[in-house]
Write a structure and sequence with these properties.
The complex is a heterodimer of chains A (271) and B (277). Chain A is an all-alpha fold. Chain A is 73% helix and 1% strand. In chain A, a hairpin with a 7-residue loop joins strand 1 and strand 2. Classes of the chains: A mainly alpha (271), B mainly alpha (277). Chains A and B meet through helix 1, helix 3, helix 4, helix 5 and helix 6 of A and helix 1, helix 5, helix 6, helix 7 and helix 10 of B.
């Protein structure tokens, strides 16, 4: 365990200070890799894309998941609706990417097919035109991720006791007021977890992009994780790749700080 | 009263049904395409039914040409072995942490964190190098090793959470009757561990099955590469033959979809665990 996970982590930080092609002798370059990180134009684009991914993840899969969880509760056919949003969750990112590659295909794809069917004179290159390709992939991402968040919010909603909600309704509050003032605050612990997870996953996204565009055309749709992979295993810039992964990890640690604090505090209670 | 209710319910239904249609569209289109003869697919519209059911022919083609069956076996081995190693190690480690209380809180936390939230990119280069040095690169042993290592943290987290709910009195009574820690683990903790074991098995086996990154970096040949890498390379060549690829998608997704349907109860339990902490 420690050998396979903790030691590599430290080793990786160590590598990030070297220039190394994976075969020859590593050359110590100090912080030059990190300086290069911020001067690299491709990487700048990749950071921008990563931010778009994270922002979009918070709006669509997370907020969407919350809305569906709230509105689907108590509706006739609740279980039917829930299981439909649940389906994509059982499918891997690779399969999701593959399925949507077909949906988005320019000549034979379903989406352009629908446009033609309803008479829209649109034939989009969903995956090859910038910046549309990033948003196309985000659609696939939303399709896959929404169910997870919906399930978590549903479980959070189920744990809310009915007394305060009823009291609030009795006092004449409408559904919206009850939600904002009673349910949403009580949902806060779940919301924290969901948001943390969603942001972390947004930062780490790799599979879907790799399958759908390989980060292209011309690295235009890369995120940090994809850039790291390309630098390391296609160009064999091991030191530089390590530096990107260190940057990515630092971001993830900062994002999940609130979550970590709760986890460690709970541990202190146990001992 | 009923009038306003209908006014509110009807738009809600329209939105829900529309969304469900969007969500179902990819699943239905994929299934439909996998049934079609590639020759018919090119000349047909996307919504037209297949001229004849061609799924088995497509499947045969996919298995022969892309050797998906070989990769299927690989991934099955990884999922079973990795899951088993993770379960064995984590259940024992979870027990010793909860009952024997070693003073390694921070390291424990680091281990759990390293396998759950941390970006895997952080391990890729050192593990890649280590595997090359040790001769584990492109071997099944190596793949099982790395998958188990990644799975143990989450499993440990699940077992530890579960064991803290077992009342201490039971164990103390056992100790009075002469039970050592090993005996009490085997006869008190293990028999009650069905639920966490199912949670771990479901989540970790699905994760191993669906992994792309480690498979791509740490393996090269058909005898070792896991299934998702094979599926990802199928699409690599400018789209390829869509009915075959979609047959591949169906073929590779069936195990996880089935697992989820069968173990749905445990899926909900696992999710509860991850938010209740």
């Amino acid at each position: 365990m420690v050998v396979l996970l903790v030691v590599p982590m430290l080793q990786n930080i160590y590598y990030s200070f070297f220039e190394w092609d994976g075969l020859g002798k590593p050359v110590l370059v100090g912080l030059r890799n990190f300086v290069a990180l911020f001067q690299d134009k491709v990487l700048g684009g990749s950071m921008l894309n990563t931010v778009i991914w994270v922002g979009f993840t918070l709006v669509f899969p997370v907020l969407g998941g919350l809305l569906i969880a709230v509105f689907v509760t108590g509706v006739k056919g609740e279980n039917f609706f829930k299981s439909i949003f649940f389906i994509p969750l059982t499918i891997s990112f690779v399969a999701t990417g593959t399925i949507w590659t077909y949906m988005f295909s320019r000549e034979l794809g379903v989406l352009n097919g629908i446009f033609k069917l309803i008479g829209l004179p649109l034939k989009l290159s969903w995956l090859t035109s910038v910046p549309l390709n990033t948003f196309s992939m985000l659609l696939a991402w939303t399709w896959q991720q929404l169910g997870t968040n919906m399930v978590m919010f549903l479980m959070g909603l189920a744990t809310i006791p009915s007394d305060p909600v009823e009291a609030c309704l009795m006092d004449g509050a409408n559904g919206w007021q009850t939600f904002v003032h009673v349910k949403f605050p009580m949902l806060a612990p779940v919301t924290t977890v969901v948001i943390t997870m969603a942001m972390v996953n947004g930062f780490k996204v790799f599979d879907i992009i790799y399958v759908m565009t390989r980060g292209g055309p011309y690295q235009s749709s890369e995120t940090l994780a994809v850039s790291m992979f390309r630098e390391t295993f296609t160009l064999f810039h091991m030191g530089y790749g390590a530096a990107i992964s260190v940057l990515l990890s630092v971001i993830v640690i900062v994002i999940s700080a609130a979550y970590i604090r709760r986890m460690t505090r709970r541990d202190l209670l146990y001992y | 009263m009923t009038g306003t209710r209908i006014l509110r319910i009807v738009p809600l239904y329209i939105v829900l049904v529309a969304l469900c249609a969007v969500w179902l569209l990819p699943v239905l289109s994929t299934t439909l395409v996998s049934l079609k003869d590639p020759k018919d697919f090119v000349s047909q519209k996307f919504y037209q039914p297949p001229v004849r059911i061609y799924f088995l022919e497509n499947l045969r083609k996919v298995l022969n040409e892309y050797k998906l069956n070989a990769h299927f076996i690989n991934s099955l081995i990884y999922a079973l072995a990795g899951g088993a190693v993770a379960i064995a190690t984590a259940s024992m480690a979870g027990f010793s942490i909860v009952r024997l209380k070693p003073k390694l809180n921070f390291i424990l936390f680091l281990i759990i964190y390293s396998g759950t939230l941390f970006p895997f990119q952080m391990y890729l280069i050192p593990v890649y190098r280590l595997f090359n040095v040790l001769g584990l690169y492109d071997t099944r042993t190596g793949m099982i090793l790395i998958y188990s290592a990644i799975c143990i943290p989450f499993s440990l987290f699940v077992y530890r959470g579960f064991y803290t709910t077992i009342p201490r009195e039971i164990e103390e009574a056992a100790r009075l009757d002469g039970c050592g820690p090993v005996r009490s683990f085997v006869s008190i903790f293990l028999p009650q561990s069905l639920a966490p074991t199912a949670v771990v098995a479901l989540f970790q086996m699905t994760w191993i099955w669906n992994d792309l990154l480690f498979g791509m970096v740490l393996s090269r040949t058909q005898h070792v590469r896991p299934i998702m890498v094979a599926l990802a390379t199928m699409t690599g060549y400018g789209g390829g033959n869509i009915p075959w690829i979609m047959t591949g998608v169906v073929f590779t997704s069936v195990p996880t979809v089935l697992l989820f349907i069968l173990l749905r109860r445990f899926f909900i339990q696992g999710m509860t665990l991850s938010i209740s902490t």
